[in-house]
Amino acid sequence: MTSTLTPYRPAGSPGRDGFAQILHAEWTKFRTINGWLIAVVAAAALTALLPIAIAGTAGNPVESCHAGNCQVEGSVVATGPGGEAVVDQFYFVHQAMEGNGSITALVTAPHGVAPKPHAPLDLRLPATQPWAKAGVMIKESTKAGSAYAAVALTGGHGVRMQYDYTHDIAGSDGKTTPLWLRLTRRGNVITGYESAGGTHWSAIGTAVLPKLTTVVQAGLFVASPDYTELASGFGGGDDSNNGPTWSASSFTHVALTTGAAKWTGTAVAPPGATQQNIIFPIGPHQQKCGVTGTCPGKQGFSQAGGTFRVTGSGDIAPFTPIVDPLQVCLFGVLFGLIALIAIGVVYITAEYRRGMIRTTLTASPRRGRILAAKAIVIGTVGFAAGLIGTVIAFIVVERKLNKLGWMPPVWHILSATSSIGLQVIIGTAAIVALTGVLALAAGVITRRSAGAVAAVIGLVIVPLVLGIVLPLAPARLVLMITPAAAFSVQQIYPRYSQVSTTCAPYHGCFPLAPWTGFAVMCAWVAAALIAAAWLLRRRDA
Amino acid sequence: MSRAVRAEWTKLRTMPGTAWLVFAGIVAAIGASWLASAIVKCPSSCGTDTTKLSLTGILIGQAAVAILAIGVIAPEYGTGMIKTTLTAVPRRSVVLAAKAAVITGVVAAAGVVEVLGSLLIGRLLQPGNGFSAARGFAALSLTHGPTLRAAAGSVLYLALIGLLSLGAATALRDSAAALTVVLGLLYVVPVLGVVLLSHRWQARIDRWTPASAGLAIQATRHLARLPIEPWPGLGVLAAWTAGALLAGYLLLRLRDA
User: Could you give the number of structural domains in chain B?
Assistant: First the structure.
């Protein structure tokens, strides 16, 4: 007699320990614990609300100047050929040049002629700025912000051809000085040359200036950017030294192909700027040159025989705001992040504490898959919470900042769907997700809540604090090697190598490029997951 | 009371993680101080407060202190040990006071090592990095009044952070929650005090939150420019600590274990 009893087989038994089932089980575990759901909602709400609250405490850009965050007095920023904010202040010895032609000069490297105004007494030596420039220039007009092309010897970056503020082409190392420099105009194309002896010329690069007028100004120029020294300090006591600098240079064998009328000296500056450039943070050592009359140098030129001596101050460069108000507001997401760290850790340590882990591992003995499923659940939950929170924060904060007067051309107003807006939003949500996964891995590794929470906060959040309180050099190092480097995805301003900006983390500036910093965090998370998977396999539950 | 203290001391001493944690905290703190003193050089950052710079590691050391202090009470709720503790010593105030005494002793001892080690490293490294007598920087020394105040104050700071963590953990009864709150208070809130776009709010946070105000005790230069003076700053932290301990005590008394 054959048995009529068939063993019980639940429906859908094939693939019962397939990955989809594990994922479903882990998701069920997560979703059925009220405390965790509340914590996720709280994380999303904190992510949205704290940036908005921070924006709520912000004043307009001028008010924030007095908080030591200011770097620009509105009037000194000029508008460049593309409508972008630029710095355009220098000393220009020029005359008109009609149509095609060229200008040539034998130029000595710029050297600093005035001490940094606030340097300690014993260091009050004339200092040459690395990006001080002396050379020849063809510029549409002497109006600040007009199109130009220039070749120059710099204080520390060799020979450079630069045009229209954002473009920078390296020439030779500039070790031979004096050096022959030449600019040639042919229609809208300007070519820069250099030569050691004045006979063999090598081209550095070409610039296309689309809307160049027939009559342009050609001549000699010297610029010397402001210097800034920052030393941050926890609990105030921020120490920043800054101010204008001056450089001088000699020019001989000056030749202009279209004739040689009288040379005119002009201190190029946007209307409203005083005689010298006054771009500098308003800090404890503020100094207004030309207002208080304490400027240690003076722009100008002298001509004796065939030799021109030109002294200049300022810079010709894209303007990068020091403070990034959007990123400052987005520091508020840290509160949501810290909530997600706690969830990610407890998602696994609670199983160890309650003994649930044994049930989990009995049901699905392949441990790597358990970890993967948990990582996917916490990563997805974190991404969703981060995305919702960041989208709301981004839109409200941008609108509020715009209303307060943080507006173009100096500050960008981004729409959430622009490519940089998406970078900020998706990048921030991904940071929240990855932090959750990192917390999970730390929970597996330590199997204790306290140790794991402390480790993740130590890796993701403490570096930001250190970045703010430490002096600049160690601060930058910390923000390059820890997962906190990923916050660089919140940066919205391009950085230019030809401008020495002081990249201070407490102004929202990170040392690594956006997605490079993000990759650092990915590497940490990957390493933590591998370590966690290895330990989960090796250890008894 | 002395028996309660001895009991707590025995518990803390025999927990497997304690010695390791104290050691790791000291190493991390002195290591961070060493890094800061080694990297900062004078021609580029001459405005640096050298005493405060050499005590940078306290910022890291405080995390170990928080973990240690939370560890003397929160895990007891996880394991049920708290019932034994309260059966043995029924008076809640005595239990909390004993735990506070033990934590203060351990943290103060570790703090003295961290502070002296950090100052010694600063004294050895900084002159070579341009903070030399020739530029008007005296070598760090405890005979210098403000430096002594910063050193003793840093030890007090750590002790107060330990007690604050103990109070928070007693109130919250969970390691993860207490640690999240305390580390958030110590590390996230001060960030706001530096980055905020509004001067008024910056000053409020610098003056009234525990970490920013408490660390004013380390400043030895530009005292007039501090948002809060050194001792009043430490007083603000002490007020937070008193509040946390009081909240912890009241909840311990009112709730069942």
Answer: 1
Task: Say whether residue B222 is in contact with chain A using an 8 A CB cutoff.
Answer: yes
Question: Residue A62: what pLDDT?
Answer: 65
Q: Is residue A473 part of a domain?
A: yes
Q: Is there a single domain that holds both residue A168 and residue A209? A: yes
Query: What part of A 459-478 touches B (C-beta under 8 Å)?
Result: 461-462, 464-466, 468-474, 477
CB contact under 8 A, A338 and B201: no
Specify the pLDDT at position A73: 41
pTM of the full predicted structure? 0.80
CB-based contact B191:B79 (threshold 8 Å):
no
Question: Which of B180, B196, B227 faces A341 most closely, judged by CB atoms?
Answer: B180
Question: What phi, psi does A215 have (nearest 5°)?
Answer: -95, 125
Instruction: Check whether residue A338 and residue A391 sit in a common domain.
Output: yes
A316-318 vs A264-268, strand pairing mode: unpaired
Whether A280 and A226 have beta carbons less than 8 Å apart is answered as yes
B106, B22 in Cβ contact below 8 A?
yes
Question: Which of B:20-59 have CB within 8 Å of A?
Answer: 35-36, 39-41, 43-49, 52-53, 56, 59
Residues A389 and A477 in one domain: yes
Question: Are B36 and A471 inside 8 Å of each other by CB?
Answer: yes
For residue range A440-449, list pLDDT tens digits in order: 999 999 988 8
Query: Helix %, strand %, coil % for chain B, to 5?
Result: 80, 0, 20
User: Which is nearest to B192 in space by CA: B184, B202, B200?
Assistant: B202
Task: Provide the pLDDT for residue A273.
Answer: 63
Chain B positions touching A325 (Cβ under 8 A) are 197
Residue ranges making up the domain that contains A368: 19-64+324-538
Q: Are residues A245 and A385 in the same domain?
A: no
Show which of A301, A318, A335 is a domain's final residue.
Answer: A318
Judge whether A387 lies within some domain. Answer: yes
Residue A34, in any domain of the structure: yes
Q: How much is the pLDDT for A70?
A: 47
Q: What is the DSSP string of A330-382?
A: HTTHHHHHHHHHHHHHHHHHHHHHHTHHHHHHHH---HHHHHHHHHHHHHHHH
Q: Which of A292, A318, A344 represents a domain boundary (last residue)?
A: A318
Tokens 């019932």, residue? Answer: B83
What are the Cα distances from residue B77, in Å, to A442, A453, B68? 22, 18, 15
Contact call for residues A117 and A294 (beta carbons, < 8 A) = yes
Q: Are A36 and A42 in contact (CB under 8 A)?
A: no
Would A256 be classed as within a structural domain?
A: yes
Please give the distance of CA B137 from its chain centroid, rounded to a whole number. Answer: 28
The SS3 call for residue A175 is coil
Contact across the interface for B40 and A454, Cβ inside 8 Å: no
Boundaries of domain holding B191: 2-254
* A361 and A311 within one domain: no
User: What's the domain count of chain A?
Assistant: 2
Domain CATH number, residue A300:
2.60.120
Distance CA A93, CA A300 (A): 9
Name the nearest CA neighbour of B174 among B98, B79, B254: B79
ipTM, 2 decimals?
0.81
Mean pLDDT of B179-188: 90
- A-B interface: how many C-beta pairs under 8 angstroms? 191
Cross-chain CB nearest to A331 (options B78, B192, B226)? B192
Cβ-Cβ contacts under 8 Å, A123 against chain B: 43, 46
Please answer whether residues A345 and A337 qualify as being in contact, where contact means their C-beta atoms are separated by less than 8 angstroms: no
Extract the residue ranges of chain A whose pLDDT is less than 50: 66-75, 120-122, 233-239, 275-295
> Do both A231 and A348 map to the same domain?
no
Cis peptide preceding B75, ω within 30 of 0:
no
Greater pLDDT, B79 or A279: B79
Q: Which residues are within 8 A (CB) of B228 and not within 5 positions of it... i.e. 6 or more apart?
A: A235, B206, B207, B213, B216, B236
